[in-house]
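Researcher: Next sequence.
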Amino acid sequence: MANATPVTVDGTLNDWTAGDRIDRGLDAGYAIYARSDGADFAFAMTAPTAIGANTTAWLNTDRNAANGYQVFGFAGGAEFNVNFAADGTVSLYSGAAGQTLIASGLQAAWSADRTTVEFKVPKAAIGNPNAIDTIYDVNDTAFLPGSYSNPAFTVFNDTGVVADPSHRIAIVWSDTTANAYFSKTAYSQLFMAAQSQAMQAGVPFDILTEGDLTNLATLAKYDTIVFPSFRNVEAGKADQIAQTLEQATTQFGIGLVAAGEFMTNGADNAALAGDSYSRMKLLFDATRVTGGFPADVTVKASDTSQLVLDGYADGQVIRQYTGIGWNAFTSVSGTGTTIATETVNGQTYAAAIATQTGGRNVLFSSEAVMADDNLLQKAIDYSVHGNGLSVGLQMTRQSGLFASRVDMDQSQEREEVNPAGTAPGIYDKLLPILTEWKTDYNFVGSYYVNVGNDAANGQSTDWAVSLPVYKALLDAGNEVGSHSYTHPENTNLLTDAQIAFEFGQSRAELEKQLSAYLGKTVTVGGAAVPGAPEQIATSQEILKYVTYLSGGYSGVGAGYPNAVGYMTPQNAADDKVYIAPNTSFDFSLIEFQKKTVAEASAIWAKEFAALTAGGDAPVVVWPWHDYGPTMWSSDGATSPYTKQMFTTFIAQAAAAGVEFVTLADLAGRVSAFQNTTITSTVVGNTITATVGATTGSFSLDVDGQSSGQVIKGVAGWYAYDADTVFLPKAGGTYAITMGAVADDVTHITALPMRATLTTLSGDGRDLAFTVEGEGKVTVDLKAPGTDWTTVSGGTIASQIGEILTIDLGAIGVHDVKIGHQANVDPVLTSFGGGTTGSLSIAENGTALTTITATDANIVWGDSIKYSIGAGGDGANFSIDATTGVLKFVNAPDFEAPTDANRDNIYGVTVVATDARGAIDTQTLTIGVTDVVGITKTGTIFSETINGTSEQDVLDGSWGNDVLNGLGGNDRLIGGLGNDTLNGGAGNDTLIGGNGRDILSGGDGNDILIGGDDLDMMTGGAGADIFRFEARGDSLASASRDVITDFTVGQDKIDLSMIDANTSLFARGDQAFSFIGTSARFTAPGQLRYSYQMIGGKEFTVVEGNIDSGAGADFSIALAGQHVLTANDFFM
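Model: Next structure:
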């Protein structure tokens, strides 16, 4: 890779950068710089003393230390040397120092103090090699490196190879290491765990083999190369691989990530000749310190600067191991950073080291430390992106993926699926449970069924019963796969022909039956291995017949967790994905390990926490059986399982925000991830990323942003949340700007689980998109002002402020459009829709009418509220804000109007207001009409006569009658007999007539006239008048009338119709004169009162005389003691 700036040979270091330094950090003031410079190799050397004669640079141009001149008889293997003569000339020689001249007078220049020298060597003069290993003799006194036995310093030629700009890593499968590993199956699980961690890191990957490691053009495609384990290597290829890796890391800044001893042993497991750790030192700046087996090991985070393990606290325990083998490494130069420690027997060592040779490297002390927790994805992220703002590709838009694998072991048992009689089968119980989980958690899964091949013993499929079950599963978004034909207990014991039958024929039969039943071509590509965990050879044979395979559990202590990906390089080439469960089987916990339900639930919860801790979009694969949540028992015994243990685990996953997917969906996403591309650049707070095609369910996850930063906006794209951009199926280019708050534009902030985003377009206000799937879409709307949001292709489930939720409906393709519509005023339609209206009602009622209005925006969520406008007689009315029902607050009384003009014509303005505040008004005129009361006369018999609420006239006539005026201003006439008159409400007039009557005025200002004989009068509420029209109305004896509730100052006694002086000489109707209490009559027409006890009760007795006698001519008894004045009488 050519350097853009040529070197000027002037004895200074002005043209050199730290990246040009090849000495790996010499001490004591020495430094070596070198690089390709057009037609030359340019060198610069600094020393603590002047650099003079007998200084030699030894050049090993074939990089084979066994060939060429051996310095001191053992080192260098130099084909050429550059020697400094006493006269200051610098020349090129072969052989020993200064032995055979090749080119004299090379370009050279010293600094003034001669401690720095620059020189150039023509490439043509030394055969234009790809690289040169160099060692140095300075003044015959200093030898660099410090020991010639140490690795030489290498300078590389321009190769013409150009780095690939896309972000991509390589994951290396080493056949040599796999064959020497304790289990090739375990090595494959480790290999897949590395792939899964790359998925979490958001960097697509390719699979390389050892043969690829000597091809510089191949290696230049990658940002980082990951070696899950590369302890063993063909001895004859070790140096070539190391040299190619060194050149790749140096020239292209490629990072390396590995675990355990690196290229230290041969295929025969023997240590490589010489310093077996030399390649580790060269490429990782690291070497082994110690190790052993067995030991208890505690791994803790120690990345205080958050260089690699961001999110981990210093000293946080990552994992504790018991009785394992272990290694400890250290940085050779001392410049490496320990990011995790391991404590063994009280001693603490480095469990993970970050170093930099060419690119950013991370070395883990063991494969377990690398793979058992989510540390590798952190290392990959760091190696590819460093610590700044970056973006990664995720296989989900949510916090992680949760794939549920259900082994339908009972599917081939006819009596379990369809028992005799009316008893429900196992799937009659399972389907309602799945429906409940789908409703509550949007849960789906993959259901692997057996066909059965022993009908005589009840092991076969009754397709008439099972196909409707399988259709129901598929209709709900689940997957149906193969669990084999007959459910063999150990697939490792099967022949190739038996595997072909179990998996090839079962797939063919399922596809045939489902296609015929559903009337369309159905592919059943996935399979789950039954019985015991299979070995890699068995897996490879099964994979010939399926598109993906889910095998045995892989986790800490039983392989490696997160074994999701390609088992081998050939599987990657064939795109055959393998998915190992990384949580425990229900059977293993309950029936094999004999755990209680509570213990099993705790283990699942702990496993989930470990798999997701520190992870970015982790993948959880949960295996269980059909007989678990159904609590099915074929022998009548009580099931050891409960439905709740399964529901609880699903709820835990849902609460963590994972996306529930089928294994087929997961396999498709793995394939898409491995095959897509991503390129990104960062300028300030803007990331520009270009992404290839995926499945439409992927996202770009922003990492390394400053505290408080969110996605401010994405140029021309409107599907993202605070830190994630939702990608369409076809991919594209996205300019993501980070800021304190998101721009106010209409954009999708959440899409449903499993939904495929196909297309999207918008202008920041309106939005159109196509989604395949089901569920709800959340949209953050641009502030609408007074406009309304319109939606087609979905149903508005809710709108709270600017957050709109759209329900897509059932599974399918949905073309959704979000637009806007200007607000329009509501229109009152009552009374013909004019600005005025009128109606007339009879008095005494409150109901009037219902006000109605329309609004064109109702369909988009607008609403209308009704109210009474200010002014007029509005205080007399009420209106229901929602229904528009208009009423009088109090029933109007024609005789006592309360309108402004007191003319029984009321004016009121009704108002319709929409949600945006727009109004329409209508002024109503409401006339109140009189309601005429009744006039009724009784018979000769005693009877009860009731009035109405209006002004009635009731005449009892003969008999002892009861007259009830009720409401209104009534006139009640007792007539003959001892009558009872009740005025009720209103200003009533009660006339007792002849007989001993009882008069009760009730409410209102009443007039009570007792008439002849002894009457009992009660005025009731209000200012009442007790009228006496003749001397005989109340005699001056025990037959006098009684007023029971006279109120001084309010009620009146009316004597104005009695002539106060009946003398022949006193003409006309004379008035009484009030003479006070207990006074003697001295003349006609006098009125007095006194207090008397009558029947044990005190009364105030009013007496009057109408002649010249000294005695009273009439009297009236007032219950109680009152102080009366002339003002209490009409005289």
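Model: DSSP finds 17 helices and 71 strands in the chain. Residues 676-821 form one domain.
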